[in-house]
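writing this on my phone so excuse typos. first protein, seq and then structure
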Amino acid sequence: MRHMVLGLLVVKLAAGCATPPSRVELPVFPPGEDGVAIVAVRPTPPARLQPGDRMEFDLVYQLSSTERATLYVRPYTDGRQSRNYIGHAPIECETGYRKVDAWISFRSSAAIDEIRVMLIGAERRELLAVATNQVEAVWEIVGE
């Protein structure tokens, strides 16, 4: 039964996927639970970028416990939230299972080792779900 649910999700989301559905492995969250996952990271880590270049993320979420929530994508370095980054605006989420895209960047030299995606309930501002991904990325000016 679990494989059938995954197959339905792939078909349902195929129209919005940049990657052909046969190559996308989407997570299946338990029915009735909230969840979030990082499906893809571009460029593929370890990444070397120029200041201003974007690191992009394909995300999926399932929101079941409330009607609205907000999704935040944050870079971390050595366990602490990175400073001076710019990124995609917080993503407003509605009940259901959806695929969304986000990005981060730095305007000057920086390094990160983790991305955290947090799903926060709109009414009580409680953490509903979190996904972390170890991501090695460096933004630096060529010649530095």
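second protein below, same order as before
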Amino acid sequence: MLHGTLATDGDPHLLLPANLAHAWRGHDESGDSQYDRACALIDDDRPYILIPFADTTALLINNADGLTALASTPDFPLLILLCREWGGHLEEDIRHAAESLCPEFLDPTPDRVPLHADEAILFGAAWPANEAPVRLRVPIHPATYTIATSAYARGSTSILTLALRPEP
């Protein structure tokens, strides 16, 4: 199931438990905002980083120049698809990338992200979470999630998927 897509004007995207969204204030003019501190941690060679936030950890997604989709399947309750190049059938390609994921072909990472809420929210990190013009919400099982990656290419479309699953 596709929960929606998000594009920003050069800002990274942030995934966090929805019950903590009120605590993300985004960018301000001080130069020392949550957003500024988070962006200083971005590594251009990594598609995401884990950042400390409100006594937990949030997932900062380095897809500022692309489109990020949020989806789920029966095997993968939370999929973050980073679309960096795409052709004319992006929604179809996103669905195909999500539906064709196979656990045996995922590249596991050592990373874990705690999402102890009934819902996760994805939005442009420059905005205060409750004011972001686009906020994607997805129901989740409260748990700590493992992160694995998978690359997908078809025609001119290139998608990197972050597959999040609750730890056993």
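The chain has a mean pLDDT of 89. thats all i got for now
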